[in-house]
């Protein structure tokens, strides 16, 4: 049986995570930043799946289910926040909200 | 079997790069769906078929559709029919279609060779039964915490997304026309 080294799966997860992180840093549209956070959460789940598959244990997949639940709750609250920001500021540029110095 | 992993990984990275370099949000979401589908194929080759199904249903289904709904709500006034017509040109959807066709070919290949018990490319094959037994055995506290988290998410989304009705006293509302009338008088 041919096998894929575990490093390749982790490398794929790391590449996806870095792409999401780069997108958060270079984008100013707030919906794009939310999408990038989703990409990073997905990459973290992929790392759990790879590790769980390497040791043939179900724990990695259970962690992925928890990440999935957290991502669903996060995207709903984040989209509600985006709606509020758009109604307050009439723009999706995240720099427009810099008056909220807390 | 291992070649499908490499092809799906390449499709995932390529689609993610296309996501973060698009200027139009709908085009980015098209590539985002392809990226999630590619990651689902990676899960399938890793011996986690239940997680592949969940990835397609929850990520590529629910979350992306939620984002599309919000985008449609926000930019309804600016987009007109001409813009809509410009979006349906073939050069816009041929990229995601090509990438997802690669994933479809991989899926058909995996279904064809799967007459024997599936032999995952790495480590071991963990089916949905083992996941369910572990989820409701040692991890049942996590399930309850997830329920609390989802409840908080529902309440928070309702509270934040509600349009607050602006309450103005009727004397203040009629102040503007009254001032005009007094100016006329």
UniProtKB/TrEMBL annotation, chain A:
Key word Kinase present: no
Entry keyword Ligase: no
Transmembrane segments: 6-26, 33-56, 62-83
Catalysed reactions, as listed in the record: a quinone + NADH + 5 H(+)(in) = a quinol + NAD(+) + 4 H(+)(out)
Coiled coil feature spans: none
InterPro entries: NADH_UbQ_OxRdtase_chain4L/K, NUOK/Mnh_C1-like
GO molecular function: oxidoreductase activity
Enzyme class name: translocase
Cellular localisation: Cell membrane; Membrane
Enzyme Commission number(s) from the entry: 7.1.1.-
Bilayer disposition of the protein: Multi-pass membrane protein
Keywords: Cell membrane, Membrane, NAD, Oxidoreductase, Quinone, Translocase, Transmembrane, Transmembrane helix, Transport
Family listed: Belongs to the complex I subunit 4L family.
Function: NDH-1 shuttles electrons from NADH, via FMN and iron-sulfur (Fe-S) centers, to quinones in the respiratory chain. The immediate electron acceptor for the enzyme in this species is believed to be a menaquinone. Couples the redox reaction to proton translocation (for every two electrons transferred, four hydrogen ions are translocated across the cytoplasmic membrane), and thus conserves the redox energy in a proton gradient.
Subunit structure: NDH-1 is composed of 14 different subunits. Subunits NuoA, H, J, K, L, M, N constitute the membrane sector of the complex.
Name of the protein: NADH-quinone oxidoreductase subunit K
TrEMBL record, chain B:
Entry similarity comment: Belongs to the complex I subunit 6 family.
UniProt name for this protein: NADH-quinone oxidoreductase subunit J
Keyword flag Transmembrane: yes
Membrane topology: Multi-pass membrane protein
Major place of residence: membrane
EC number: 7.1.1.-
Reaction(s) catalysed by this chain's protein: a quinone + NADH + 5 H(+)(in) = a quinol + NAD(+) + 4 H(+)(out)
Protein localization: Cell membrane
GO molecular-function terms, A-Z: oxidoreductase activity
Lineage, uppermost ranks: Bacteria, Pseudomonadati, Bacteroidota, Cytophagia, Cytophagales
Keyword set, alphabetical order: Cell membrane, Membrane, NAD, Oxidoreductase, Quinone, Transmembrane, Transmembrane helix
Transmembrane segment boundaries: 6-23, 30-50, 56-76, 97-116, 136-160
Task of the protein: NDH-1 shuttles electrons from NADH, via FMN and iron-sulfur (Fe-S) centers, to quinones in the respiratory chain. Couples the redox reaction to proton translocation (for every two electrons transferred, four hydrogen ions are translocated across the cytoplasmic membrane), and thus conserves the redox energy in a proton gradient.
């Amino acid at each position: 049986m041919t096998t894929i080294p575990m490093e390749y799966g982790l490398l794929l997860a790391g590449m996806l995570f870095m792409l999401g992180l780069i997108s958060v840093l270079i984008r100013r549209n707030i919906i794009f930043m939310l999408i990038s956070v989703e990409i990073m959460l997905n990459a973290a789940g992929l790392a759990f799946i790879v590790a769980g598959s390497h040791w043939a244990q179900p724990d990695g997949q259970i962690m992925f289910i928890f990440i999935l639940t957290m991502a669903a709750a996060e995207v709903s609250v984040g989209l509600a926040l985006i709606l509020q920001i758009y109604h307050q500021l009439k723009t999706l540029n995240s720099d427009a909200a810099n008056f909220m110095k807390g | 079997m291992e070649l499908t992993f490499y092809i799906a990984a390449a499709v995932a990275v390529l689609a993610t790069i296309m996501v973060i370099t698009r200027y139009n949000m709908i085009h980015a979401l098209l590539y985002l769906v392809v990226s999630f589908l590619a990651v689902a194929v990676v899960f399938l080759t890793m011996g986690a078929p239940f997680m592949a199904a969940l990835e397609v249903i929850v990520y590529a289904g629910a979350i992306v559709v939620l984002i599309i709904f919000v985008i449609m709500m926000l930019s309804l006034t600016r987009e007109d029919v001409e813009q809509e017509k410009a979006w349906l040109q073939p050069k816009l959807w041929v990229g995601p279609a090509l990438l997802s066709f690669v994933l479809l070919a991989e899926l058909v290949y995996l279904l064809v060779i799967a007459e024997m018990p599936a032999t995952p490319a790495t480590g071991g094959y963990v089916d949905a039964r083992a996941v369910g037994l572990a989820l409701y055995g040692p991890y049942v506290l996590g399930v309850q915490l997830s329920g609390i988290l989802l409840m908080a998410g529902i309440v928070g989304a309702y509270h934040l997304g509600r349009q607050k009705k602006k309450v103005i006293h009727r004397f203040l509302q009629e102040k503007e026309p009254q001032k005009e009338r007094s100016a006329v008088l």
